[in-house]
């Protein structure tokens, strides 16, 4: 499924000063929205795409960034690396985009990274694999999601607080799944703990009974997962049906714990599950601003799609970086200005319009994002807070927050 969307665009051409020197570019800045509209990421992709368009409309309504409007062309990754590669090539070669935003799933991001980097384009993503940080040699990749290492640290902190002593791990065989469990193991063993058993399993299997038997034979008190919805559904169903180790607990990533999992298994099967996910910057005015626009556009509550807040922030942050770089809004200049929009000594701003006004007034800004505080580290990564949720009244309900 492929489609193109334009967000409030007014076409313009580059103007030249009478003396021959180039003035600020006025042609639209083209954003490629590359989201999982179908496939495993489909519970989130449509909202992620809509959030990009909402943010572009917001920038355009404020007069654009450095006089340039934002134009959005949207593609569906189908949550497939192969489809994502074809889609990003179309965005670059046909739509001539200047930046790519919104990849979900580490396998997708790692598949398209070489292509965007070769083209000299920034890639703003919501993926967790540590390799995304280390393989970004050009400083063109910006991560708006917690790394899998940080997810693993959150898993370990929760396991410690709950008093677990004998964890085991099960990981889907890709960069994200393995990254989650390796992050947990690193944090757990650094604190003196031991992991009693570990299994890496292959995707799209009809059954995982043999992997389950291997894990349960070690008598764990908690099983930490690096998993997705489809495989989590199969594994939990087979564990429950087996009747083996009925008291064992499960810690699973939030992207595998949604209403579809409840619909597939029922609350009884999920009674032992602790779901951990990054959460938005819910106390910030920027989040309230985003949430109102998202609810109006989608008819759904924003907390159900944390990734939509991330893609919204991608566009707002990029627009502010354009304003910061003004009058030079070349890709390189804007990319080099992203860290400047979260200056520790800057004026707190919560919308594009506020930030634009402050920058035009010559002030430093600190954009407090809707998705997180957006403090980028040396790798271009952020560290949001995490929630832990458990089944209560037939739904996953937040029971606590983990911060670092």
UniProtKB/TrEMBL annotation:
Keywords: Amino-acid transport, Signal, Transport. Residues 29-346 form the Leucine-binding protein domain. Belongs to the leucine-binding protein family. InterPro entries: BCAA_transport (IPR051010), Leu-bd (IPR028081), Peripla_BP_I (IPR028082). It comes from Tistrella mobilis. This is Amino acid ABC transporter substrate-binding protein. GO terms for biological process: amino acid transport. Pfam families: Peripla_BP_6 (PF13458). Residues 1-24 form the signal peptide. Gene3D superfamilies: 3.40.50.2300.
